[in-house]
Design brief:
This protein has 398 residues and is α/β, with parallel strands linked by helices. It has 15 helices and nine strands. It is globular, with a radius of gyration of 20 Å.
Length: 398
């Protein structure tokens, strides 16, 4: 009965949500897009950005060049790889103390997520970030936001999501609200050329998972999100191995950046699923890199869905020219291809550090995120999630 009520909720929510008039970021793309940021801010009437980025970017010649065109600016460069609520609050405090009038987030998903959470707090200073966990809990206009990804993976430059850690519990807090969609996304492939191979793979697999999970969430899918997913999946499967093999392949890097952006736009509407739910819970518990955890979990979770995903994965495999045959044959070929691609790019098959005693908590945290919002192909109970975790651990020690 509970599952029936969850599906009713998802059906009703999806019928409204997929027609919700979400804003999409203005795209600044192509060669030297990064150097157009000063003009973007001038056009928006912004003169004092808080720049949320890392020390390497902040000390680089390219940033110094664009920063020289700002009337005023301030830098916050103390964001950890898994940003905490405390860090987001420090960013919000810096924004207010320096009387900034916009955010400029440059980096991977951690920088953008932390800045988005800070923006949510600025919009709702009377509410804790923990109470904004879920969907549509911010609801107030946030500061003007320019997102500049330096990885092709998180898609945060296109999404309404911010993920931060509650440092008191270790639980990841996921804030979803349309007001968090950035106003401008600056997509400059040159910024991704120096990304190490391991991060190229991990962030790329995160983007691929966004597209696959969004594609499988049929109750929320629209014609547009389905097209975005198929395009993103095809482009990532083709270009991620190229970017891994040749980090300076500008065309592959450009294609990956745009594929990640497409996947971000798609899952903003269609959501993600159990791969992300488990990865967030595992990452919070063991402090594993998000993209690495995602890459390892993806084929195992897809296999656990079983026959419920044979039709959509079979259609997808045939559509992108990966396999031919029955739905079951093509779906299994698709999953096999993911495992093969992981191996060839150095991704381990499992996670050996998983502990049996942690499984109940991981499963509980996962389902807190997934249910009732994500319209996943199968609703897993603790037993099924434990079986997935056990298999992933076994693959890690075999």
């Amino acid at each position: 009965m509970k599952q029936y009520m969850i599906r009713i909720y998802q059906s009703l929510f999806g019928s409204v949500w997929k027609h919700y008039p979400l804003k999409m970021p203005r795209e600044i793309t192509g060669k030297d897009a990064f150097f157009r940021i000063p003009s973007v801010l001038r056009e928006a009437g912004r003169t004092n950005p808080l720049v949320v980025t890392g020390k390497r970017v902040a000390s680089g010649d390219d940033f110094r060049q664009i920063a020289s065109a700002f009337p005023s600016y301030h830098v916050f460069d103390q964001v950890e790889s898994d940003p905490s609520i405390a860090t987001a609050l420090k960013i919000a405090k810096a924004y207010q103390e320096h009387r900034c009038d916009c955010f400029l987030a440059i980096g991977g998903g951690s920088y953008m997520d932390a800045a988005k959470a800070a923006a949510a707090h600025i919009a709702n200073p009377e509410k804790s970030l923990y109470t904004m966990n879920g969907i549509m809990k911010v609801r107030k206009k946030t500061p003007f936001f320019v997102a500049v990804p330096t990885t092709a993976g998180t898609g945060s430059e296109a999404t309404l999501t911010s993920v931060v850690i509650d440092e008191k519990t270790g639980h990841k807090v996921t804030i979803n609200d349309p007001v968090l969609v950035p106003d401008v996304a600056v997509l400059d492939p040159a910024l991704t050329l120096s990304l190490p191979c391991n991060l190229t793979v991990q962030t790329g697999m995160d983007a691929l998972t966004h597209a696959i999970e969004a594609y499988l969430n049929r109750p929320y899918c629209t014609k547009k999100t389905t097209t975005l997913c198929v395009e993103a999946i095809r482009e990532i499967l083709l270009n991620l191995p190229k970017a891994y093999g040749d980090p300076l392949d500008y065309e592959a890097r450009s294609n990956m950046l745009h594929a990640s952006f497409k996947a971000g736009k798609a899952f903003t509407v269609a959501c993600v699923g159990y791969v992300h739910g488990l990865a967030h819970a595992i990452g919070a518990r063991y402090h594993m890199p998000h993209g690495l955890t995602i890459a390892i979990l993806l084929p195992t979770v897809l296999s656990a869905y079983g026959e419920k995903v044979y039709v959509p994965l079979g259609e997808l495999a045939r559509h992108i020219g990966l396999a031919s045959g029955s739905d079951e044959e093509c779906a299994k070929a698709f999953i096999t291809h993911l495992r093969k691609m992981n191996r060839e790019m150095g991704i381990p098959e499992g996670i050996s550090v998983l502990r049996e005693e942690d499984f109940p908590q991981i499963a509980a945290y996962c389902n807190q995120e997934v249910i009732p919002l994500y319209p996943v192909p199968v609703l897993f109970h603790e037993k099924e999630l434990t079986e997935i975790l056990r298999k992933v651990r076994m693959l890690g020690v075999s």
